[in-house]
Amino acid sequence: MPGLDRPRAAPVSPDANKGETPWTSDSEAGGDEEALHVTLPYEHGRKPYDASTVRRFRLTVVEGPAVGTQWESTADTCSVGSHPLNDFTVDDSTVSRFHCEVRIGPKGPQVKDLDSLNGVIVDGVQVLEGVLRSGSLLRLGRVVLRFDFSAENNRLPLSENTRFGTLVGASVAMRGCFAMMERAASRDVTVLLEGETGTGKSQAALAIHQASRRRDAPFLVVDCGAIPAHLLESELFGHEKGAFTGALQRRVGAFEEATGGTVFLDEIGELPAELQPKLLRVLENREIRRVGSNTHQPVDVRLIAATHRDVRAEVNAGRFRSDLFFRLAVLRIPLPPLRQRPEDLPMLVEGILDSLGADRERTAALRTPDFLARLRHAAWPGNVRELRNYLERCLVFEEAVELAEEEVLSGAPPEVDPSQPYADQRRRVVDDFERRYLRALLEKHQGKVAQAAVTAGMDRVHLYRLLRRHGIKP
Ligand SMILES: Nc1ncnc2c1ncn2[C@@H]1O[C@H](COP(=O)(O)OP(=O)(O)OP(=O)(O)O)[C@@H](O)[C@H]1O
């Protein structure tokens, strides 16, 4: 897939990495591209991840300012950086605002670079994602932290339920998410849903709304990535008659229309810079100003936002205001990719086949242990949406389509089945064409969407929307 394993992008904004100092060290690995993907061994002696508990860990500053400062985990993650919003704030100009995240996952403790300026060097090797062991040294600019396991465990809040709204999952990762969603539903906090495409962010937002006290009021969705910047402000806040050319009528925006309910801002990472202070005002003062109006008016809505990128990296790059991130991330819920929770596959396959109205007898081949085992080996870059598309394709062919041959099959002329409704068949053929066209287009342009849009003769926003719909990452 184009774009994967790309080297870190250079900051694009003049505000990017503001105040941060580049750091070079002769003694440690630098920009060697191969070194970025090295995986280091972790401590095998003891299982680091259990059903509802996770091993506690400590980070200690062993080099740089404030040597000896220590931080101990209370859950399974720790974000480290110079911004006060981090779990562990390390105040140094060579440390990025959100520098890295340490997480105890099913494969042990890992560190992930959040697009920092000076990178993360683990035991002498620069990594974008690397596995840690007790005693590992993490260099962030001129600061060195030591990672150690503590003797105790932390309990993780897990839901007893294996579904929330339309979402299903029995894995620890999903039950952890469900616990947070249940908490979000019972309070009026702003929620930031994070996760790759197709991990269920939109469905999670709707389910939180439906389980909240606001359930009888509207749930309005605004996709910040699909609406051109000049129209987005009016979409969100409305406009007065005559506010701009073409504003023939006064228009109520999403925040007013959703009074008493929830506004779901999808792809919040795409919110243009000029609208960020306006959204901040909504969150701080609970008031909006229509385009072309001089007065503010109060609004009563809950905001849920979603993003497929790590907004902390956007803050580092100067593209997203840190104060807005602070207001949005009151409750952050990261939805795990499907490849990290293969144990959810049987439940997902059952649920999807049922929702597609599949006949149990005719689809017995799609429920066998063999079939499920094959699904476990796929990467699912488009996550549950891709799984759903794949199962739909199996239903069309009435057999378990070989995963490895998916592309080959989709290249063959599509079967025509006159016993199926015209609209359904046409949609499948068009979907299939769109997927293959988009993949080839992106490959031709090495993932550069702006260039690809010119060749395709379509608006960039429309191209982004199509890519998202098919779970294809540029
Ligand atoms: N845990 C889950 N259980 C059941 N269905 C799921 C789950 N996660 C996702 N889905 C299904 O996958 C599809 C995509 O979900 P959704 O649109 O909520 O993803 P998303 O993260 O918002 O994607 P995008 O970022 O591309 O907008 C939907 O059909 C949804 O019902």
From TrEMBL:
SUPFAM superfamilies: Homeodomain-like (SSF46689), P-loop containing nucleoside triphosphate hydrolases (SSF52540), SMAD/FHA domain (SSF49879). The keyword Transcription regulation applies. Residues 1-32 are annotated as: Disordered. It holds the Pfam family HTH_8. GO terms for biological process: regulation of DNA-templated transcription. It comes from the Bacteria. PROSITE patterns: FHA_DOMAIN (PS50006), SIGMA54_INTERACT_3 (PS00688), SIGMA54_INTERACT_4 (PS50045). InterPro entries: AAA+_ATPase, AAA_lid_NorR, FHA_dom, Homeodomain-like_sf, HTH_Fis, P-loop_NTPase, Sigma_54_int, Sigma_54_int_dom_CS. The keyword Mitochondrion does not apply. Keywords: ATP-binding, DNA-binding, Nucleotide-binding, Transcription, Transcription regulation. Residues 167-396 form the Sigma-54 factor interaction domain. Residues 78-127 form the FHA domain. GO terms for molecular function: ATP binding; sequence-specific DNA binding. This is Sigma 54-interacting transcriptional regulator. It comes from Pyxidicoccus fallax. The lineage of its organism: Bacteria, Pseudomonadati, Myxococcota, Myxococcia, Myxococcales.
